Amino acid sequence: MGYSTYSLYIFAIGIILVTYGVYSSFILLPESSTEELKNNYRIIFFHLPSAITSFLAFTITLISSVLYLIKRKLKYDVVAHSSARAGFFLITAALLSGSIWAKVAWGSYWNWDPRETTVLILWFAYAAYFALRESLENSEDKARNSAILAIFAYITIPLSYLSTFMYFSLHPATSELKIGLNIGMTLGMMIIGFILLYISYMILETASENIRMKIEGAEFNE
Amino acid sequence: MSDLYAVFFASIIVLLLLLGIFILSYRKLKMIEDMLDRKV
Q: How far is CA A131 from CA A77, A136, A175, in A?
């Protein structure tokens, strides 16, 4: 079985899980009994999976960047860059869905809450990663410099995760969330669905980049 | 903004951005196809 077939199967399972998750979050689950949450708690089914998957994607970027610096093989740079791109899209989704939730729950789109602020710093750190890559022509320079930047940018991930413990925050700590079985099941399904879609994207992206580099004559595995 | 509108907008934004990463992959595949056509 080829890479594209694996990717397609994983994509199909991911889409089924996410579709069921969307159906469950809008139709099956009842309103919250908590007055401030009512229907807006449903945003968690989109906000949390995108945040968790983006953290996973940035972790893969970190590991691949370190591996590139040790082994100097361009395939690690390809994985790091592809994963950072998925992570950047997903953290943007988490940031935007979070600010919509903040508007209905806290009254304002942006509150300079420690979690919001640290995620914004994270967003700028990875925006700088892409800007750096675009500014360099040579693929070796691009890979080396962006790998170093990716390692420093990763500091913002534990910083944003721990921000709710370190300072007073309106945002609840993820580890302290208390949720019921039905909500937990839907949330779990959405998280697994998002992760599967991310994996299928990574398989597709690295395989196609491999072909592109071979066409261009670069040694993908060297 | 009512609660349900907020949920609707947030979900649309998230799902579109999730779809966005696959659009990027699709564009890359089309680019590779063009490169292969030029080589042939």
A: 16, 9, 33
CB A85 within 8 A of CB A127: no
First and final CA of chain B: distance in angstroms? 56
Domain A3-30+39-210: assigned CATH number: 1.20.120
- Any chain B CB within 8 A of the CB of A147? no
Q: Which residue of A has its CA nearest to B24?
A: A205
Query: pTM (2 decimals)?
Result: 0.90
* B35–chain A nearest CA distance, Å: 8
Q: Collapse the DSSP code of A155 into the 3-class scheme (helix H, G, I; strand E, B; otherwise coil) and give the result.
A: coil
B9 touches chain A (CB under 8 A): yes
The percent helix, strand, coil of chain B (3-state, each to 5) is 90, 0, 10
Spatial separation of the C-alpha atoms in residues A144 and A147, rounded to whole Å? 5
- With bands split at pLDDT 50, 70 and 90, how would you rate the model's confidence at A31? confident
The conformation of residue A154, written as its DSSP 8-state character, comes to T
Is residue A220 scored above 70 in pLDDT? no
Q: What is the ipTM metric for this complex?
A: 0.85
Q: Is the dihedral of CA A128, A133, A137, A143 positive or negative?
A: positive
**Domain residue spans in chain A?**
3-30+39-210
CB-CB under 8 Å, A208 with B25: yes
Is the separation of the CB atoms in A138 and A129 below 8 Å? no
pLDDT at residue A174, rounded to an integer = 67
* CA distance readout (Å), A174 to A34, A121, B28: 18, 19, 36
